Amino acid sequence: MAVRSSLFSFGAERTKIYYCLTLLGLDWFAAYSIGFLLCVSLSCKIFLLIKLSLSENLQQVVVNQFSRVAQHQRCSFFGNVTLGLSISLAELRELYDVVVLAYGAESDRALGIPGEELFGLHSAREFVWWYNGHPDCRYLNPDLKSTDTAVILGQGNVALDVARILLRPTTELATTDISSHALAALEESNIRKVYLVGRRGPVQAACTTKELREVLGIKDLYVHIQKEDLLKTPIDEEELKNSRIQRRVNELLAKAANSGPSHPSSGQRELHFVFFRKPDRFLESQEKIGYVSGVRLEKTVLQGDEPGKQIAVGTKHFEDLGCGMVLKSIGYKSIPVDGLPFDHRKGIVPNIQGRVISDARKDPPSIEKGLYACGWLKRGPTGIIATNLYCAEETVASISEDVERGILAPQSSLPKPGREGLLQVLDDRNVSVLPFSAWEKIDSEEKRLGSSRNKPSEKLVTWDELLKVAAE
């Protein structure tokens, strides 16, 4: 059964369009999902709003992928549109046969422990947005001068990239597209020691090989890992058998622990991997009231007999780790929008293979016709690129199947307004919609500014600057 459908994908984040190059993706799955849709035999027009958040090393690859999709004749791009402000989800569902939500996870998880309100604590997301020039964090201004020690809670790829920025020579950073205000601050930074703290052991480290190799490869860096932390249980060995990535990560950590000097040389920058510890509370400085001076860590042990499912359990043995800055890299959290079913405990939209469900308690569950989810909003902030591709492919397969089964067949002989209806609503509300050509102007201007400084690009770091260039 051939059905002429219109589809709207709201992607990456519910903010104005900006290619913020952050270190762990806040969802660029919408580009993948739309790419798959263009390859299946659906008679549909695809309307896209997406904000990309990419790591430095993925920048050009994914920008190129996104550009190919956005420039496709069956795809339209709407920038400077905010879901929930410019237009509601309910209105989108009235305008389109299908709405795909892929706006990712733009908030931070909280630890919920004493002292989390102290100055000197930041989320890794904020820090990443700051040094990558995201307008919302332009004025974060982390204090890099008052301490020589930073603690990063977490050992995933974002945590490693934050450590890399803090420890990498600024002469090397100067030729990347790091924002100028962040580079200037890092050039004056006094931080020489970075501690990466994880609840579990090296076998369970959540990073991947490439990111670990990059931070371990920093010039003249002293790396410290307790050799006893590298001891493995039979369950650990079984975990390593089941994952090539974990094996390679474990091999790199073991090599780093055994190949370097036993002590740092004078003035050498230091990276310490701290395993089997979880934060209990943040300690307040006695000299600077209201500021962090350290983290109290509780030693942990692993419990569980199933490989891949061991959990860290506290032992009631504590130790204090002094520092003047803490960066929390404990995960991202999606934010619900009005009219969208949401599992607050899991931080995701309840779904079955991408189909949004409104009541999971029913048998069968109640499915929201024409409403789909993709990426971190669908499954949580986990996975690598391959995971993202499979996720997008699954959601698109569900849409295709629903079309073939007639589930998305219009109940009226009149087609839904689609693009024209959306433009009319936005125009009535005086929303300045930016087409894809506006993004291309921003990209071109940033590259022009960067070329004079031997950089790939020089970020425009305020909304006013971005919108001014986009309007030229």
UniProtKB/TrEMBL annotation:
Q: Where found?
A: Mitochondrion
> Which residues, if any, are the signal sequence?
none
E.C. number, please?
1.18.1.6
Write down the required cofactor(s).
FAD
Q: Which reaction does it catalyse?
A: 2 reduced [adrenodoxin] + NADP(+) + H(+) = 2 oxidized [adrenodoxin] + NADPH
Give the principal location in a single coarse category. mitochondrion
The UniProt record gives the binding positions of FAD as L83, W376, G383, I384, I385
The entry lists its GO molecular-function terms as: oxidoreductase activity
State the name under which the record lists this protein.
Answer: NADPH:adrenodoxin oxidoreductase, mitochondrial
User: Which organism encodes this protein?
Assistant: Ficus carica (Common fig)
